[in-house]
Amino acid sequence: MNTLKLLKNSFKKEKEFGVLNIFGLSVGMVMSLLIIWYLQYQTSFESHIPEAGKIYRLISKDKNDGKLSFGSPLPMAHAIQSDYPGDGEVAALSNTELYPVTLGESKFNIRASAATENIFKLLNTYFIVGSGETALTEPGSSVITQSCAHKLFGQENPVGQAFNMETYLGDKVFTVRGIMKDPPVNTEFQAEMYLSWKTMNPSDWEKNWWWSGTHILVKVLNEMQKADMEQKINTILERHQAPYVNGRFDYQLIPLKDSHFRTDIENPLTTPVSSRLLWILAIVAVFIIVIACVNFINLAIGQSERNAKETGICKVLGASRSRLAINFLIVTFQKALIAMGIAVMLASLLFGQFQKLTFMKDYNPFLVPATWIVLFGMVVLSGLLSGLYPALIITRPNPVDLLSNKKGDNRSQYNSREILVVMQFSIAIFLIITVLFISKQISFMKNHSVGFNKEGLVAVNISSLENPNDEGALQRKAEILEQEISKRALQNGILTLGATEGIPGDGFRNGFTVYNPDNLNSYTATSVGIDENFSGVIELPVIEGRNFSAGLASDKETILINETLKRMLGWSSIENKQLAIFSKDNKVNVIGVFKDLNINSLNQNIPPMIYRYKENAYPQYLIFRAKPEQISSSLAMVKREWEKISDGKPFNSFNVADRFDTMYGNEERLSKIIGAFCLSAVLLSCFGLLANIAFSINRRSKEIGVRKVNGAKISEIMTMLNNDFVKWVAIAFIIACPIAWYAMHKWLENFAYKTELSWWIFVLAGLLALGIALLTVSWQSWKAATRNPVEVLRNE
Amino acid sequence: MIQLTNIDKYYDSKFQRTYVLKDIILEVKEGEFLSVMGPSGSGKSTLLNIIGLMDSPSSGKYLLDGNSVLDLKEKVRVDYHRNFISFIFQAYHLIEEMTVYENIETPLIYKGVKSHDRESMVADLLDRFNIVAKKDLFPQQLSGGQQQLVGIARAIISKPKLLLADEPTGNLHSTQGEMIMETLKELNNEGMTIIHVTHNEKFAQYGKRIIRLEDGNIRSDTNRKT
């Protein structure tokens, strides 16, 4: 009762400052809570697997270009296992992808992977029905999670039930042989369904060394075995005389727990997170909580001077120093607790947005004990930090000094406040600059020329026309579709139409080794199959030689290259030049050079490329350019034609320009995250400023009154009060600029194409910070300047 | 110069209206030296604040120099403070971070007087009050009487017509108080109108006219023959 009264009194005295003070602490707590949750989530991956430390993942390194990838050849797992009969466990699984499942009348899309049966033993999967050792051994068997069972079969017993699935190898029938517990959210293995390895792969899979999309996991007994295994794996390609890939890759084993942080390895199971980002966030979290606490202290001191008289009276009336200090601490702790309450509420409100932004899946941080430990830790820390210091300071002076209103010598205190404000504003200005730059880089990349005209381009995925039981179906049907569309092109606004294996912006996945027959230097070149119309459709000019020609049968075995590859080969002209692809003997003629074009985001340089004729590489897409106003009508027409020949396969199309823009999702996410921190840093800095201005106004209230009765205008008083703060922001600006410049310079190194570090962004950020600071300060200084001097100049 | 007609000042609380000043009618002519006396809480300071445009009455009329000065705009009010009215206080209210010289100079800066002119004006006053030697000291380093002298110097440097003094001797012992009152008397002889609030009978006698306030009313108004 008594303690609540203390709190009530303190609010009465401090008015809006009490509220602000608590709110400031809440903001700090919310931001650090969100960050801590994020860190906790990211670092807890795979921690549910008991012997995770003994599990490794196999990665490959392309000797030509140094690229790392999780993908290994199909027969690799088998080959490793046969080197270690008896001990060591090896499991292989494919990428987790969405597969269409038909069950009677109903259709579902299920996230599934093909896997060897050891996978369950390795991942320590808990089976509700069936056993991990036998569930996947039979061809046609499948294992599903609890919630997947519920989705597919409802209340029925799923075990033994059969369902139909569309795979790369045509439609297949699978039978459910086991039900496992749903995977936790913090694991990279998120498949709802595992499918029999044999059924999901072609019958000759043991010879398919060129297919390198398999993830391989091994569990070793000890470090020694790991080293031994790594060495043996590196001899496998040679021992098995693996076609196409022999001699191209080096292999390494990396700990399973690390794989979630390896952003440098291609083909991950789920999106990895950079450990550097996690470190930065951790530092930011510490910064934010410290700044919030120091603000809290500052505001408290600013207010305490106001309360000094009361403290003096209490002392005169016989209150002991410890009594006063304890009262003060009680009040601050109550405030910190209130701040925590608000923080928890705010954090749970914001958490949904934050989850989306950071790709955290259904993670419930309130169920994690660490959350509450951290929360109460913050209350104790901020309560003690913010309470103890003022409690000691206020209660120290003699009551006479307090009563006589002497302010004492607070010069050193004043300095530390200045430093704090400067620090806060440096961080705020730094973050403002960062956000502005990232946005600038994103818009630069979106608007930068990519070497072809992407406006009005639409791609239609035709790969589902392929039918393993009907060889050549794709080619035949694609041709029919193309002819039918061409017939109706004019009245539907379609300007040009072509076929291609890949669409720029959608990722080109085929990398071939290319040899220069003159010196046998090898290069990994991105390969794409196109028809003779492709370059016309996307407006990609041939700068030397000629394009493919439909009339010349000999063109089918020739290639075109891009400028980059020509430059790498060191050729001055392509006249009479040949290249060997796949193997050193398979020489083909080079008939032309295409201008360079960006097939990937502008983060990356243009890779060396070869263009092959469509007969040799299955076209996966039709691509056409339509008049902008007729895009939807042309799409509708193409869809109608598709439905005539596709046997009910879904129609799948996308706008090429849009697809290009989605590649910058990472950067946009980053800018949003930093934007959120920027906002809170600015908010916190404003609280810091408020604390300071309140403090200094408090100290100078008499001076302000005297100046006013001596004829100072309100504007003159405000200028006087605001001047200091303008000076501090200027210092902060000077500190922040070089740091921001360096950081942005480093960040831009990630991009092959970068925007300029323009000076106006720095100026803009500085002006923004100054404006915000002035607004904050003026709110208080206006109040002080318009106050009736009578109030402060009363006889004392 | 000052014409107060039916001035009321009251505060409304929940159930009642508390009058600080009630129906004050007062005229002060140019060149007068008026002492306002009365017990604590009789409304002396409030009256002075209203006259000094630092507070406004709840009702009534106030003509200063022939112009109504109620509900003035900030700009006009500041002009009055710069050129017409000056204050001295019981607690001196010097700016502690500034030297004696700077304290006296402050009103001139607000008035926009040029640096060169300021120098000579401040020097004249320092000389007149015999505190030239103290000009670089800070207020805390002076005795109460000296501080109040600085306060007076600051008040009169802008050559106001009206000087308002709120218990200027309240914090001083009698010798120093007398010195201050002598200074005020001298200023009055030079033509400055002075209104002086005190509850010291002896110092009140320096005034040419004394009014006594009690519970917000003027109880007596006597002209002293000199």
Write a structural description:
The complex is a heterodimer of chains A (796) and B (226). Chain A has 796 residues and is of the alpha+beta class. In chain A, strands 1, 2, 3, 11, 12 and 13 form a 6-stranded mixed beta sheet that branches. A 6-stranded mixed barrel of chain A has the order 4-5-10-7-9-8. In chain A, strands 16-17-22-19-21-20 form a 6-stranded mixed beta barrel. In chain A, α8 (275-316) packs parallel to α10 (369-395). The longest helix of chain A is centred in the last third of the chain and has 45 residues, at 665-709. The radius of gyration of chain A is 34 Å and the shape is globular. Chain B has helices at 44-51, 74-83, 100-111, 115-128, 144-156, 174-189, 201-204, and strands spanning 2-12, 17-28, 33-37, 59-64, 67-68, 85-88, 162-166, 193-197, 209-214, 217-223. Chain B is globular and about 55 Å long. The longest helix of chain B has 16 residues, at 174-189. Chain B has one domain (31-57, 72-223): Rossmann fold (3-Layer(aba) Sandwich), CATH 3.40.50. In chain B, α3 crosses α4 and α5 packs parallel to α6 (174-189). Chain A binds chain B through residues 702-703, 705-714, 716, 788-790, 793-796, and chain B through 45, 49, 52, 54-55, 74-75, 78, 81-83, 86-87, 89-91, 93-97, 106-107, 110-111, 154, 158, 166-167, 170.
